[in-house]
Amino acid sequence: MSVPCVRVSREEGEATRRRLAEADLVDDGYDITVEDGALYVPVTDPSAVPDTFEVVGFDAPVREGQTMPADRLGFEPSYERLGDLVIVDEDDPDRAQRVADAIVASDLPVEGVLNRASKIKGTERVRDWEILAGDTTEVVHREYGCAFELDLAEVYFSPRLATERHRVVEQVTAGERAFDMFAGVGPFVVPFARQGATCVGTDINERAIEYLRRNAERNGVADRVTAVCGDVREVAAEYAGWADRVVMNLPHSAGEFLDTAVELAGDDCTLHYYDIQPDTDPFGPGERAIREAAEPEYNVTVETRRTVRSYAPGEHNVVIDARLRR
Question: In this protein, which residues make up the domain named SAM-dependent methyltransferase TRM5/TYW2-type (predicted)?
């Protein structure tokens, strides 16, 4: 059966496997295989694989002795792994339970199975979950060498954005001052601090801030992370002109906070602005909004326009990296 695999040369194989393992992307249900001088590493989520790697379909053998969910169901179920939890999205309760039972009975290393029971809702961007197996919605997720403790029932977190977060993290240099306006449990802030940046993260969700503080401790960067619970618009005055880098990952309404982002910006600041727009003009509205908020106080240079992922038919989740120079 064809499964998504990263294809690299044999010489690059071990370094590639380690990097994918750090991002929790290696699919342990299949063997890593060498064929015609290339090494094929099975991956759990091809959309989360960094763009620098080539993802191909390859007939990777099922790991000997392992039973996969499809072996018990007779079809390939759709699921997503987050730490030792598995997430499914099934509307039919009977089918959902069948899938969960097959996952638990398989040889996948899982502690529980959750089914999405609602869409993301409210200002804290959480959703309801149905526990199909196990007894918790709390998990530890590993991503590019960092570990994040979180409770899916209480905070927003998307493992599908791992590649995008890593893209931004690689731009950070030691000594920077970085501000995440909607920090959640710290998937930007914590790796920024590991790069040597001094970081501030704000969020209106008190539980998210609690997890952010725990994750800063867990990853050994608590001395470089300040976590603040509250509306960033009420916090910004304390950090006016402070930031060398500002992250605005609130795609549906980030535009409402651009004046605050400009208030936070120092003399030379990179702004990572996330947006959801139609494919007819995915970047124009965001660019115009950034310029309206920042000019003429700042010269604005758009350095990156990137589609992060498809959001809905005809709509895309995009990011604009804009350089603001006073």
Answer: 79-326
The CATH code of the domain that includes 199 is: 3.40.50.150
Write out the residue range of the structural domain in which residue 73 sits: 69-136
206 & 119 share domain = no
CB atoms inside a 10 Å sphere around CB 8: 19
Helices (H), the chain: 13-22, 69-73, 93-105, 162-169, 189-194, 206-218, 232-235, 258-264, 284-294
C-beta neighbour count of 286 within 10 angstroms: 26
Model confidence, pTM: 0.83
In tens, the pLDDT along 75-110 reads 989 998 898 999 999 999 999 999 999 999 988 889
Give residue-wise pLDDT tens across range 296-307.
999 999 999 999
Does 228 lie in the same domain as 96?
A: no
How many structural domains are present in the chain? Answer: 3
The answer to the question of residue 149 being in a domain is no
Q: Which residues contact 292 (CB under 8 A, 6 or more apart)?
A: 258
Tell me phi and psi for residue 61, to 5 degrees.
Answer: -70, 140
Nearest to 250 by CA among 125, 117, 78: 125
Instruction: Check which CATH number belongs to the domain holding 94 and give it.
Output: 3.30.300.110
User: SS3 for 238?
Assistant: helix
